[in-house]
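Input sequence (153 aa), recorded before submission:
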Amino acid sequence: MIAETVCCAVSAAGLGIAAVTAYRKRFLAAARVAAYSLVPVGLVMTGAVGWLARTAFSPTAWAGFALLGCAWVLFATTRAVERRRGGTRKERRAAARAAAPEAVAPAASAPSLGGARKPAARPSGAQGSRPASASGGGDDFSDIEAILKKHGI
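Predicted structure, token format:
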């Protein structure tokens, strides 16, 4: 009963503020204030205020709200942990299967540049009497030399 009276008083005050706002030639703002001020009366007429008043003073309702809060905390925690791990268990298994190395074809050859292997040492007469420092660091062109040798150039 008190809640309904308070809602009606709030609505009356809101309608008064809307009237003053309209008097100041701010009709759009006045219509908005009037709309907000009619909400409490509408809630009283639908019975929502009575239900809310009964719920606010019920220990069972508060226990229900506490359980809903616990459920929400558990849900949020599990989602956070799932994001840190990178998805659901099913998604992680699928990713692990996709990352597993597939079987290599039996006729596959090793890459031509393989590792950083140095070509076989040549006699100094084959390239002339160039010192190693003049060739630009020696190791820098070893890969290129290996490719050229492979193609017979």
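Checked by second reader. The two ends are 103 Å apart (CA to CA).
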